[in-house]
Predict the 3D structure of the following.
Amino acid sequence: MKLKFALRTTASAAVLCGAASMAMAAEVEVLHWWTSGGEAAALNVLKEDLEGKGVTWQDMPVAGGSGVEAMTVLRARVTSGNPPTAVQMLGFDIKDWAAEGFLGDLSEVADAEGWDAVVPPALQEFSRYDGKWIAAPVNVHSTNWMWINKAALDAAGGEAPETWEDLIVVLDAMKANGIVPLAHGGQAWQDGTIFDSVVLGLGADFYRTAIIEQDPEALGSEMMVEAFKRMEVLRGYFDENFSGRDWNLASAMVINGEAGMQAMGDWAKGEFVKAEQVPGEDFLCIRFPGTQGHVLFNSDQFAMFDVSDEKREAQMMMASAVMDPSFQVAFNLVKGSVPARTDIPDTEFDMCGKKGMADLAEAAANGTLQGSMAHGHGASSNIKSAIFDVVTAHLNGEYSAEEAAEELVAAVEAAK
Ligand code: GAL
């Protein structure tokens, strides 16, 4: 069947749905980890969009930021021969599943809709495998952001920090004002998210050689020792209950003024928006000090597992819906991310969304766009886990900065 026409016009979509419902209602089972307030609100935009097109949504949420737990559940489902139809996935995981031969081919819909011309090459790197489209990107997130309570910043001198040194001044002032300067949740992926920014803050070349290229010399360098020392400095600004806290609860501390700021990807904006906070008035979004002009990106994509023919139609409808321009606006306004298509104007986005889109375009044009290690776009899953282990152990006081740099070389080498 030619899906091209069915997917593009409402009338034929209705025919497609009609045909599908005669055989079996179009239904997608979607495995995802969007369970925080902001994430669930964004997911709802997708769910309602699909239900409006006659596709029934079967929800398979697996809580746990950055999808670590979701990927474990996915492995179990696939191993037992029962993969979900669609799965939220990040970068290298998509490529790994494709290499194992488990993913379906979305090329028919992708070619008909011209995804090639509108999805930036940095994303296509992960949405295509062996010439085929294997995933539909729903957004572009970025990890090197800070989220600041505006009133807390005003009380701390009012100047948003641009450099590492500025950051320390503001954190000290917030501490003196009796609030938690830096809201953090001690979970490996959150520690890794800060580490992404700290390494980038020491230089884009350093990030590239150490994290993307995993050059042992860079991994064990003096600069890496400095990165770990900076992690120790930041740890001094956490509250004593940081261990194990979910990221959205750390965001809530900034939202309610208990804490001054959070270093987190722009999914945090989804929490501020959900709490009806306004950027520029209630909170500020800035690049992690020292990283303006650079973007560490990750993109949530929906990979479709190779399933029976009757489920395939619904998969294609979902892929098409995800890439629809107006859907990409509606979804990303709520999610905190920016569209995965380059042909969408920033008109409807708030100041953080506009900044996210401008920063992304600038970084793509200047060669300062790099994949986030902590969110699956900078290194393979094995290497990511190896880095997380060392970063978390160091943050919890198991290693000195010098030992951590040495351990990092060994851990990454062993994971290669
Ligand atoms: C990221 C994902 C985001 C957000 C975040 C926290 O890896 O790309 O969509 O959900 O994890 O869960």
